[in-house]
Structure formats: C-alpha cells, structure tokens
Amino acid sequence: MNSTSHPLSPPGATRFTFQGMAAATAAVLLLGACATTPQAPPQLAVAEAAVLRASTPSTATDAPAELRVAQDKLAAARAAVAAGDTERARRLSEQADIDARVAELHAEAVRSNKAAQESQSAARALAEEIQRKAVR
What we know:
By secondary structure, this protein is mainly alpha-helical. The chain folds into two domains: 3-36; 42-135, Substrate Binding Domain Of Dnak, Chain:A, Domain 2. Helix content is 79%, strand content 3%. It is built from five helices and two strands, in the order ββααααα. The chain is rod-shaped and about 105 Å long. The model has no long low-confidence stretch (mean pLDDT 84).
C-alpha cells in the first residue's frame, strides 16, 4: 500500500493515501470476484464438442429429436454453471455428451436402413429382370 509519513505523526507512523486505499479495495474486490466465479466442469467442454460434432445437417434430418435433447441438456448445463450448480452442470454435461452420441448413432442407423432398403429394392429389380430374360 502506498503510505506517507505525516509531519505531526510520531516516528514510524504512516498515513494511508487515497490511492493506496483504492488499490487495496480493488485487490479485495478482484479476489472476491475470483472466488465467486462459477467453474465449469471439464465434462462441459466434452459435451460441447460432442454436440457440435453431432450437429450436422444429416443428423438434424435423420435424428432431430435426439439432437434436440442433446442441445437442450447442453444449454441446461451452461445455465447450471452460471447459477453456480457445478454438480448439476457436470451431470447434465455427461448426459448431453451421451445424447449427442445417441443422435449420431440414430442418424447413422437411419441412413444404413435407407441404404439397405435401396439395396434390397435393386436386388429385387435385378432378380425380376433375370427372370424375364430366362422366360424368353
């Protein structure tokens, strides 16, 4: 702290200046702000990456409900961090991560089923063509 001796003060006595008090007050406020800043759990970053990875046009088309659940839980996890509820944020982050993976897998399954149906349809058409040529 910034201090100066006052001419009428006993030797060794100090007087605090306004700048010194302001600096001390700012330091206390900054330390207090650091102590109350909500800390995001590490799972939140994992969930954010998973939801981002799952947020593709094909997943939005083929698994919109599952993707929406993951996005909603991620938003709830962020809100829990802002509210200072780290444990709830951790749980919601883990759930959002899993839900994002479910969305990706569901979309992949839908695409696989479509591809399988197209292959079966092509195989039927080929079999019918072969049978027509065999009958002639």
